[in-house]
Amino acid sequence: MKKRILFSVLLLLFTFFLMTQGGKMVIKSPDFKEGELIPKMFSCEGEDYSPKLEWENAPEATKSFALICDDPDALMGTWVHWVIYNIPKEFKSLERNIPKKPKLENGILQGKNSWPKTGYNGPCPPPGKPHRYFFKLYALDTVLSLKENATKEDLLSAMKGHILAETQTMGTYKR
């Protein structure tokens, strides 16, 4: 009897651990490490490619993903570098160098950044201290009815009440 109770308690603790830690959605990039320098090829000083991003542990109820990349250290306030949404639920990554088109062949839509241009434009801070670039991924319980070229504000508004999970990774850049 004592073994059965001990086993039940351990099973409950393990299940709790998986629900609170093991199942948390995470995003990372093989192109830069968390909190470290983003390579020049992903900036205005290089090819201005979007970096490869990979994620795991999205909630089962996810219907689509959205991603926003921005720089909160910009002199004029937060500068938006990328708005991309309606990423299919089956996706576990975004490849390097996503075309800068409003609508991709797989149905993914891209919005306007702060330049204002469609798609990704990488770090391009003024000379001085490093800036931080946050890549924020959202798992959504719907496919958004937004059209292409939405702004960050449009996307945030459309996502209200639909976010199942969110995660982020951050890299830095200095000129």
Summarize this, please?
This protein has 175 residues and is α+β, with helices and mostly antiparallel strands.
Q: What does this protein structure show overall?
A:
With 175 residues, this protein is an alpha+beta fold. The chain has a five-stranded antiparallel beta sheet with strand order 6-4-3-7-8, covered by helices on one side. The chain has a three-stranded antiparallel beta sheet with strand order 1-2-5, with no helix packed on it. Mean pLDDT is 92; it is low at 6-21. It is built from two helices and eight strands. It has one domain (25-173): Phosphatidylethanolamine-binding Protein (Alpha-Beta Complex), CATH 3.90.280. Strand 3 and strand 4 (79-88) form a beta hairpin.
User: Could you say which overall geometry the principal axes of the C-alpha atoms support?
Assistant: globular
User: How many distinct helices?
Assistant: 2
- Count of extended strands: 8
> Residue ranges: pLDDT <50 for 5 or more in a row?
6-21
- Give the helix/strand class: alpha+beta
CATH architecture annotation name = Alpha-Beta Complex
Distance between the termini: 67 Å
- Mean pLDDT across all residues, rounded? 92
Order of helices and strands: HEEEEEEEHE
In the CATH scheme, the class would be: Alpha Beta
Radius of gyration, whole Å = 19 Å
CATH topology: Phosphatidylethanolamine-binding Protein
Helix content: 10-25%
- Number of structurally distinct domains: 1
